[in-house]
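fyi for ur records
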Amino acid sequence: MGQANKPGQSEARSPISLALLAAAGLAGLLTVAIIFLALFAGLWLDNYFAVENHMYTFGLVCASVPVTLMAMLWVTRVITKRFVPTNLPKDEEDAASG
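which gave:
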């Protein structure tokens, strides 16, 4: 079940949750773009070389999967690095870790 907001609690999201939301959206769009690029490049290569079994399409789409995973990790690291402080003093670092 969800938690109910207390009367004085604001509805604003924290900066880190907004950063993660932006990273997820951008990584998803980047993933779709890379896979479609691989798909259309493979179809074009299959037509150009007159291959009937779609060898290039299959190869490029399979090769695009690790590329999209690396792109997702890169986008997430870049976006969250801007919002998460990295140089906390020692006492705040212990409190932030839980």
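The mean pLDDT is 83. thats all i got for now
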